[in-house]
């Protein structure tokens, strides 16, 4: 009975958790605020009131952006894992984050006054080139493209792009300009960044939801999906477009927030199974909740200082990645 109820109640529970975390995020900060301040900021806003200004112009856009970025990265990671049948796939590991950051650096070198509107297109281009490079390396390797080779190629390309990015940053003394996009964070954001993130996130999420039944079939294997009449190339193309929209937009406004796209799909699958019609909505909520919680922790753990969000999620994700690798290794050992 409990096992049957878990997939049904997971979505409302995760939605409730996200709402609670967003409320907590609005209350965290050096400026004290009350429930009355929150109500006034929403329905009777007075810009001269410091608590209302902080809530409406600083904390609310930051909280919403954290939720959008987390949902986007988690959904793109779930789509990638389903299409490639590789549970280690994600924007960070598959070269999308590294490619997006590299193209943003090139844009800063060529256009020093690049704004967010230009940055989002550069991020899309870089994410696409990074993913294409990973697929090319895996395809050209001996034995062809397999989930393991795809993960290894992604790790190699991501490290290479990261090294080039850091090298160019040091050579051209762009530390201050690139710090925002190389570390990953959402400090000092405002409403324009939220609007910029929503532009690709809405169609990307809609495409992911529409493709979810097809991704479920494709995750069973290309031969199985093709035998059931699915146009696998068309599904892969649509999935790639969805991933690029979600990842490119998130990188453009928040930089490389690592491992959210790798961790969250595993959490969602443990609750609802392998049906992507259930996974996509749950993983979006879980990714948003995880990123909002990480943002709260990043500005609360050290008093008077803030840990960049990208560094915080990478520390959590690295631990999860090692645990997942050990689990896979022990599983294979048991099979022998």
Reported by name, the CATH topology is: ABC transporter involved in vitamin B12 uptake, BtuC
CATH level-4 homologous superfamily:
ABC transporter involved in vitamin B12 uptake, BtuC
Spans where pLDDT lies below 50 across 5 or more residues: none
CATH C-level class: Mainly Alpha
Between the first and last Cα atoms, what is the distance in angstroms?
A: 34 Å
**Beta fraction:** under 5%
Structural class, from secondary structure content?
A: mainly alpha
* Total of DSSP H or I helical runs spanning 4+ residues: 13
Shape: globular
SSE pattern: HHHHHHHHHHHHH
Rg from alpha-carbon coordinates: 20 Å
Instruction: Provide the number of structural domains.
Output: 1
> What summary fits the major beta sheet?
none
Helix % is over 70%
Mean pLDDT rating: 83
Give me the CATH architecture, please. Answer: Orthogonal Bundle
* Number of extended strands: 0
GO molecular function: transmembrane transporter activity
GO biological process, one term: siderophore-iron import into cell
Transmembrane segments: 60-80, 92-112, 118-140, 152-174, 194-221, 233-259, 279-297, 309-326
Keywords: Cell membrane, Membrane, Transmembrane, Transmembrane helix, Transport
At a glance:
By secondary structure, this protein is mainly α. It contains 13 helices and no strands. The model has no long low-confidence stretch (mean pLDDT 83).
Give the arrangement of secondary structure elements.
Blueprint: H1 2-27, H2 35-43, H3 50-84, H4 96-110, H5 116-140, H6 147-171, H7 175-183, H8 191-218, H9 222-227, H10 232-254, H11 260-272, H12 276-298, H13 309-335
Helix pairs in contact: 1-3, 1-12, 2-3, 3-8, 3-10, 3-11, 3-12, 4-5, 4-6, 4-7, 4-10, 5-6, 5-10, 8-10, 8-12, 11-12
Transmembrane segments: 60-80, 92-112, 118-140, 152-174, 194-221, 233-259, 279-297, 309-326
GO biological process, one term: siderophore-iron import into cell
Protein name: Ferrichrome ABC transporter permease
